[in-house]
Amino acid sequence: MSSATSRVAQVRPAPTVEPATTAEAGAAAAAPGQAATETASVTGSNLPSGGGLPPEGTARIAADYSSYRVVAAKHPWRWVGTAAVALGVLAVAWSLATNPRWEWGVVAQWFTAQSVVNGLLETLKLTAISGILGFVLGFILALMRLSASPLLVSVSWTFSWIFRSTPLLVQLLLWYNLGYLYEKISLGIPFTDVRFFEVQTTTLISQFAAAVLGLTLNQAAYSAEIIRGGILSVDQGQLEAAAALGIPAWRRSTRIVLPQAMRAILPTAFNEIIGLVKGTSIVYVLAYSELFYTVQVIYNRTQQVLPLLLVATLWYVVITSVLSVFQYYIERHYSKGAVRNLPLTPLQKARKFFATHAVTNRKSL
Amino acid sequence: MTATLTPATRGLVEITGVRKSFSATEVLKGVSLTVEPGGVAVIVGPSGSGKSTLLRTINHLEKVDGGHISIDGKLVGYEIRGQKLHELREKDILKQRTEIGMVFQNFNLFPHLTALENVAEAPVVAQGRSKEEARRRGLELLDRVGLKDRAGAYPRQLSGGQQQRVAIARALALDPKILLFDEPTSALDPELVNEVLDVIRELAKSGTTLIIVTHEMGFARDVADTVVFMDQGQIVEQGTPQQIFTNPQEPRTRSFFSKVLEPAFNI
Question: Which residues in chain A land under pLDDT 50?
């Protein structure tokens, strides 16, 4: 025992086995004088007892651990796991780079070919149009479903029921073959012979129209539920407060409820849009020349099946990545007020990193 | 605090035989109450006695099943045409509500709008004032509740007491004749209660009619002209704070106060 520990033991009114051992361990690590003064100051502040069995009426002083060094817990299995995964990632990367059958040269050659880019633009067009129309229709369906009218509620419910329970492939083929069911489409007064306008169904429903129709209606059924879920997630008190302030119903929805609902809607909505990007590939059954169909046409001619599928895949990855960046910033925008302080964006983090490092470098010079 | 020195001539609330049921439970069993212009009525009573529901019928957040409520002689939620009461359309109900401010137990501030935006929203969309005017008035009101420097803060960046003070400023922004407080301090930490009560005390002197549901008995005694004791959907007893707190006539009132009033509070 050093002199420090003995002094520590002296200031303790009720010595027990436990604090004596910790004091011994501490004395080995800390400067003796420091430990003693700190313990003394604790004694002065008269801290209440923290357990043990002190004699009646005497307060036990809490032990002082400030002179101890903290040793982090070790996680050896975490290192083993990390090493195993790193090895796996390395192996995959190595095989992608060295296996000649991936034919990266062919991939590079077709990646920006005019026909592929045209297909890509068609995919983007389909996604944008059916995504926007789908969500607009979905919003209307969600409001119908939440309305007080039983008819509107059941129409909205039936819509979602039908379009969610039939395969998209069947829906697309049905729209494309609508001409078989209804030869002509006309606008007139129902149940009379008055017609303002009449057209052959086959001329009205092109491949593009069938694709947009199918994707939009299908998307609307799903987005209606997403938007409804978002609206339901907003506290009823918000609507009450807005109503009590005399804010009109439309404004209540758009200014008060929807911005708050967006936080719940956005993650799932982006899931849907990303699904839609790749889902557009299904319209190849209509021989519509979007990205996937274009690639198929090419590999049927050149027989370079895998490299060309890789071309399409890489483009889908690019689109999804861009969308994910949008998602990050849009979600951040709508989290205003929901979190106390917004976290830094990656760009801001980078700027801060360089700024602080520039400062430290200057200091060290 | 306020510049209004006009004697209170507006804000007469007359509640006559109001009934309200939720499915099988009758929560208001024919309640009648008159609050004079500029008066301060505090409603007390055990939970489930119908206090909050009564408050919410005054601005038609709850539709009544029977009886009627009028403000300055004008029916709330209905219009008399011939021998019939026609239910008002949404637009007219909203217009009536701008004359009645309400402060909620859980504040119900709009979390995605700043304190100032919360206060300045309704005057623009419900009363058609200019954005500039609403902003200026909003800052004035935030200043009045002592939060001018927090105008740009979002509700979650404010303490409970500060949030409730913003909510009071928001209710004041419409220049209401009547202010309804639904347990304004029940969701607050004890040390934050007084900052909110102080604001309400100031309002009590301003000539606006106040109807307050609260469990703060000391505050009720300070601020009320009339204390109303409710139990099981009925008004059991009402009178001046002096009468109700020190000399209640009804056994139910006596037994309630014997439970809620600390001995030190008894005069």
Answer: 1-52, 365
